[in-house]
Predict the 3D structure of the following.
Amino acid sequence: MRDTGAHVGGLYLLAAEERALRLAVLSGVPWDVALPWARVGLGYHSPVADALREDRLVWLGGPEEVARRYPQLAVVLPYPFMLAASAVTADDTVWGGLVLQWPGSRPPELSGAERDTIDALCRRLGGLLSTAADRDAPVLPGGAPRLTPPPDVLTGEPREPAVAFAERLPGGCCSLNADGRIVFVTDTAARLLGAAPSELLGVRPWEALPWLNTPVAQDNYRAAVFSRRATSFTALHPPGRWLSFRLYPDGTGISVRIASVAAPGVPDPGPSPAPEPVAADRSAGVYHLMHLAATLSEAVGVGDVVDRVAGLVLPATGAQALILMTSEEGRLRIIGHRGCTEDLTGHFDGVPLTADTPAAQCLATGTPGFFSAFSDLRRAHPTAIRVDDMAAWCFLPLLASGRPVGTLVLAYDRRHTFAPAERALFTSLAGLVAQALDRARLYDDNHRLAHSLQAGLLPHALPRLAGLEVAARYLPAGRGTGVGGDLYDLIRLDDTNAAAAIGDVQGHSVQAATLMGQVRTAVHATAGAPPGEVLARANRLLTDLDPGLFTSCLYVHLDLARHRARLACAGHPPPVLRHPDGRTEVVDVPSNLLLGIDADADYECAGVALPPGSVLVLYTDGLVEVPGVDLGDAVHGLADRLALAGDLDAEALADVLVHDVRHRAHRGDDVALLVLCAR
């Protein structure tokens, strides 16, 4: 942070068993402000997760770029700041991620020296973590990060002349440390705030002064923390005095000027009773609720929703345990939990919806249940059993468009009073979870249907032919992309002739999978004809169907007796050939038009020799496409991997070629591969 001028820094460590990153070290921002990002799933669309998946430095040069690339982050942090995220690695092993943040006033680009500093630090951190693991003393993330002061924190108590200087200034002033707690306050400021200095020191302003616990006050505080720019707001001190607050931040904390003002445009409210006390964490709860809403908008599938809810709801509510259940076949079934023992989960899983239990009753009636102590729960439900020594309970019905979806259970290890504002907040939270869960279940149902359709259309086994060794691989795309339309096939024509085909239907949908089956049927129907004619007939069929989707395809006629192959291509990536002497080349085959564009299109052919010991590799673009890499370069990279693989059998060779893409954290496209070895 010192060498780059960053004012916020965080180190994440990989929690492999959770497929997530956990914040291990934090500097420059209070822990409660950073809570929503304490855990980041590897599949999340966030700067640090993207940096790990793509093995690159992610740079966000201002609020516009944040809003364009990470809209859910911009919703929660609409402040001027800049951010860099980079993977912490050593010897191709990922250990975690580094995040640095700067005020919005800095230049919008990282300098070369700053990039070098970040790269060098990530390598050094990776080396340290690797060495610790080799010594059987791995560095693991804990429940909360280690908080370290930023480089510009000043030590020592305020000197007496400084105190006298502050007291002589008009109005009042106070100082907040990096954690948001009051460490200095003048007598004038204490009088304006209506509290004794002893009541203010060591606590956060909104904890000591409930009337300051407003979204406006906390939003200005977070804006000052994240942007390092001065902010100001006006607040009403009950019963009728208006105060202005000006916040001046730096790395050591925030200086606050306080003065009495006549609020412009606001009529004198006159004497009025003080408002009812509000929960101390109400504004923080709204902040977490916004973060949950933005995060759930990107969730895909039930598993993803469960992962995000479990990671975000506990810090948003302050609960120690969480159970998420859905209604299935007349019972409540647990689909996710956090902070629970087997005894606790066993107490809830499989409970009939008609049972007289708080979890079932709240769903049946649609009414949340709040129990500040276990005695309250026992009075309402005499059969309740205390498990895990949990003292307070909250049961929230999950309703989507009036339909019961499930129940969210929160438990506290000590008595917890649920204030009216907090109850309303929790009810809103349950509504967000219910809507996301309902969408996710529908997505999962469609996803399973599409994958079942696609699996039924792909060949379950490939024919055996003398003189030809074959291996195939199919890897579906990552979650959130739908089902693809990749196809492959090997057709036995006679004892010495065979046909191989590979293709890719545009898009990811049930329609793409269905069209893939029609293309495969068309190829089967004409297999044995010259390759150009096979593609021309398939093209005419697709043009007549007019599905609105285009298809790439590569068809190969294999003459095993003469050791030759004839190929025709419809806009598909070219095959890669390895010669018996180990040389590899990308086969030069005319690309021609995609299928389904022009019914009268012709498809030129090319021929290659396939002597014993040669290998022909057919594939779809999901195997080679990498963001930021030219497709031609990626194909030649595949040829290099084929050359280095050595004389393996077809199955082992296929495993080598899909190894890298199989271990990517996220695949944006399906992968189909067909390896043909002439023996």
Confidence is low (pLDDT under 50) at residues 266-282. The CA atoms of residues 580 and 613 lie 5 Å apart.
